[in-house]
Amino acid sequence: MGARPTRGRLGYATLVVALLAALGAAVVGGLALGSVRIPPGDVLEILTGRADPSPFRTIVLDVRLPRVLLGAVVGAGLAVIGTVLQALVRNPLADPFLLGVSSGASVGAVGAIVLGGTFGVGSALATTVTIPAAAFAGALVSLVLVYSLARSGGGFATGRLILAGVAVSYILTALTSLILVTADSADHLKEVLYWTLGGLGSARWDMLALPCCALVVGTALLMALARPLDLLLVGEEGATVLGLDTARFRAAVFVLASLLTGVLVAYSGAIGFVGLMVPHAARMLVGAAHRPLLPVVALLGAVFLVVADLAARTVAAPQDIPVGVLTALTGGPFFLWLLRRRPEGVPA
Q: Is the dihedral of CA 324, 326, 327, 328 positive or negative?
């Protein structure tokens, strides 16, 4: 995670344009492919409003487009969060999923689903207010707990942070299962399974506004904090010498990361390893300075999750595999490779 010089302006602009083109191609592919295959030319005509009303138009605009857009937003957000967490704790293994943040958000969301059904909270209210708020609370409590365990005994141990995150994640996963098995209604099983595996199949147009706003505002705030994030890369003492109140800064950014994670998980479930893999790939392209890094991370994360969800819809069609299963299948080996490369989890 050591800082590297970024490429020149022309090279960086070319990279961003290439990533935007890749995202456009991934979106078109996500709209064209599935259990019903639609020619890409027809997809473009539908998107530009030149196509006549047809079943294809309904599939593209009402079914697939909200799903693809939600995948892009969630992928971008999780990648940005992973990048920031890795800088905050100076550990290349940090990730919203591995640190228990996603599991905490899932506990909150699942609790809101079950309690909402038990006490008769309306579905519209639960979708727009209750579930995101509960997911944020769960994410924040989880992150505070993991961070406190890592700091116990004085100092801050980056290796212990990952162990604490994994342990807390297991506990929260068990708590989610406990909430499920003690729920009064078996109707919650399918809905809760969605949160635990992570998926985009229930995406609708009315679900996009809050995640999009959270991504834009959260990323903009983190871009404004690029310099303090860069200072953390030089180490705790170095950042303090350069005038950064590391404890206060970490606390503020942890809250922001929890808020963004909670909103995203509330609509997508716990999709793991996106925030682990994508930041490393982005740093290979532009280095570790956060101002040029965060836009590239967001674009890469969007492309990655749109492609992963496309694979989840097509690899066993007509069966729709939860995208969280595929990200875990790819992220698990990547985590083991990274752990073998850096056995102590200490950033290079």
A: positive
Inform me whether the pLDDT recorded for 31 exceeds 90: yes
* Total-model pTM: 0.85
Q: How many helices (H) and strands (E) does the chain have?
A: 16, 0
- Mean pLDDT for 177-198 is 72
Nearest to 324 by CA among 104, 129, 125, 103: 103
Cβ neighbours around 127 below 10 Å, total:
19
Q: Which amino acid, one-letter code, is at 96?
A: P
Q: Which of 100, 91, 96 is nearest to 77 (CA)?
A: 96
Q: How far apart are CA 348 and CA 339, in angstroms?
A: 12
For residues 10 and 253, which has the higher predicted lDDT (pLDDT)?
253
Assess contact for 172 and 105: CB atoms under 8 A. Answer: no
Q: Please give the structure tokens belonging to residue 198.
A: 């992570």
Q: Where are the beta strands (DSSP E) in the chain?
A: none
Which sign, positive or negative, has the C-alpha torsion 199, 201, 202, 208? positive
Cβ neighbours, 10 Å, residue 89: 25
Residue 117 has pLDDT above 60, yes or no: no
Q: What stretch of H or E contains 332?
A: helix 323-341
Note the pLDDT tens digit of each residue in 124-171: 445 567 777 888 888 888 878 887 887 766 656 666 777 888 888 889
Neighbours of 204 (CB within 10 A): 13
**Cβ–Cβ under 8 Å, residues 179 and 53:** no
Task: Please give the average per-residue pLDDT across 13-32, as a whole number.
Answer: 95
